[in-house]
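User: Hey, quick favor. My workstation is busy. Could you predict this chain's structure for me?
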Amino acid sequence: MTNTTDPVDLQMAKQVVRDLHAALDAAEPDQIDGVLTSFTTTDWLWRGMHPFYEQTGAAAVAEVFWKPLRAAFSPVQRRPDIFLAGISSADESEFAEPGSTWVMQMGHLLGLFDQPWLDIPPTRKMCFLRYAEFNRVGADGKIHESAMFMDIPSVMRQAGHYPFPPQTGADHIQPGPRTHDGLLFEPQDPEAGPATLAVVDQMIADLVAVNEKANATGDETYPYDVMAKSWTEDMIWSGPSGIGAAYTIDRYQQQHSYPFRYNLADKTFNGHVARMAEGNYACFFGWPNLTVRAIGGFMGMTAGEAADMRIVDVYRREGDKLAENWVFIDLLHWLSMQGLDVLQRMRQQLGLERFGGDSPHGGSS
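Assistant: No problem, here it is.
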């Protein structure tokens, strides 16, 4: 991976990513390799969720991810809700490059689900693939590093295959910002981004204090006032399929925070690869952010081994508080580390794989 940590003009970085998306969305399948090659370095590192994982170079990314996706969902319509760029302040992870320039886009890819994808049965109806994509742009105008987070279980759910027990939060297609102002194509107030990141950092510091108390007392509850310091009362937390979304501080505590805190133990923070803010929006991702051990009950699952959670957080600030938070978690990877391959289980249920490992109908792993 090329090391280019010098800050890059944010508007230039945004334009590189916008041009990539425009070219990629217009490309025929046999043109995808060429489009990706023209915008990325030869040693481009692409991180994808389970079952895609790390890929190097445009050809690998095209073959493993984009061509199969485009074959299954056609035509694809990109529907971004948030778009921002910033200089990363992350320095805790071994993969972090403080001072590097990142561009993040979050939204949905919409298509007609006409062919199987990852052996998920097609519906022949419109289907939404929720995504958050991070791209590190160098001074050479090339993309050196990317991370593509997707809500694959949501696609399974839309196809009528429910991979998890009933979730604690609301189960729906996640909307974008309430204010409809998340596409930061133009330059933003240079003081707004640091102000947003300061609120995020304060919120994290408050939770660290809560964790220290919990470690000392074993009590994972915390007062409403702790969250009210940095969150609006009508906050919305939009989590991944399997957990769901929650509205208001009280329901967030009931429907996500307490289940997460009480049913997962030995939480270890591993740092972020990128963390930045622009305007009223901030975001980060880790590889992994957390290592946690399920002790039974989380998402209705049994106890398991310590496993990694790769997480994206995207925030919208309103005044001096946070009002909305969109979260992606690679739950399929987290469960695979504990011995449960959700996609393989689906294939077996559909008769695409025999339990001995044979695949009489061409199911792929």
